[in-house]
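Milestone M4 deliverable, item 7.
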Amino acid sequence: MDADLLIALNTVEGIDRPTLCRLGLEDEWLAARGRGRLAGHYTRVRKDTFEKVGRQLRRVEQMAEIERGRARDAGARIVTRVDPGYPSALLDLPLPPPVLYCRGTLPPGPGLAIVGSRLADAYGLEAAESFAAYLATLGLVIVSGLALGIDSAAHRGALRPPAGRTIAVLGCGVDVEYPRGSASLAQRISQAGAVVSEFPIGTRPYPGHFPMRNRIIAALGVGTFVVRATARSGSLITARLAIDLGRDVYALPANIYDRRSIGPNTLIRDGALPAQHPREIVESLPLRIQDRLQTPAAAEVIDTEPPPEHLLYLYRALPRGEPATAEALAEATCRRVNETLGALLELELGGWVRRQPGPSFVRCG
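Output delivered:
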């Protein structure tokens, strides 16, 4: 199979993505560039679709070279299904992507997917970040989708350890900033892992792209951890895809009266493994995976490292998993509000707390 053919196929217009992925598996048909006879197990693809693709594959080498150039201009490279660097875990998918666009370097080693709601609360954000930091310290590659909320918290947590590695899978081109304001985090991820997508350069983030994106997240992880999710969350799609691939699913137990807890609590009811500490995820992994990880003691440093002594009083006054205003913290610690705001700024700059709208403040893991 020629890599140029897969790159050119991936840029064909007017064909839905599942069909392109199906055609990307048909080596004999691709080798004939659309003129071969239809394979029996692809008879669901209409004949006019085959012919439409075949007409666009007349200039394969030129199409591939143009796309490679666009990828280079975006600071990315293209890895095809037939290249040595293509993640073998994606071959477990019924419809693996023909190509991946990659900013950064796909890290070796087992991955763990962490997903959840975009509208997460302080409890979910703290859990996602602290779990990701702990697991990344052990050597797991944290995989998520760069969305607001839980996904971004998981990436930030994975970047806290010096050797932490993470992969962000996008539902748009790797050159498109989505969500808005994510460029800085995406750049950090590409330096400690990779930002990847199956979509051609310049592809906009259409809603239908995200279920396709989610299958890659599920496949790259040896398991999927769902932190916060509503009943109709895309995170539950990722969890179902992980189950279909034979991967374990973990869920964070949460308040039954919060709609963002419906997803994880339902998963637990249906057989997902409840995870109250990242050690519980590690202990459930196959032994062949556990044997490749660092000792758990190494992660405790990330899990328990305190802020400076002169700020401990304020950090300890912040309730875990709940936001608090400067006024409430000043009253709780018997300090002036201005003094409390100055101390909160120090904690924020040091990465121990995060400012939220209001403004209020929450712990970072």
